[in-house]
Fold:
Amino acid sequence: SPSGLLLLTSFLLHMEEGYASLTRLVCDNRLIQKYIGEAKDMEKRAGQCQALPTLSCPVVLPLVDFSLQQWKSKSNEIKRREILCDLALLVGATAGAQGQVSEECGARQLSQLYRHANSFLLLLQTFSREAGPWEPGCSPRSMEQTHVTSVFLTYRQLVQGKLRFFFHDLAKDLCK
Structure:
């Protein structure tokens, strides 16, 4: 969509390009805090929408909870691939929910969520210089959901959890 393309362009321009953009996001902790705040706001606004329907066709959401101890034992590349899998599933679930929500408030929030999650997906796909291109087709732990609010909850948990810790880990190497 034109607005999604505009957001992506501004996201990439705002953050410069590829590796440099990730470096800025990783090294300026205020940016990830901003995205966490936006995720919380989207979740809150979606919860305030009137008459959000139960999805007649469930969407498949990644289970994004994790053990910090296990997380710390993984390489940054494995973490990146895991987050990419989660984001790809979340972007697909968001698109699936969008197709079922005609109510204006919910549709607007889902559209915003789709743009944000897809921007992170594209950024992480392009950031790694040493890793090869990302291969779709991974199968993260997942669950089916029929509640639209679950999509927002999953996104907030992903940004607040795995993404934030991943950026924190990358900062140790990139922000010297």
In short: Strands lie at 54-62, 142-147. The longest strand covers residues 54-62.
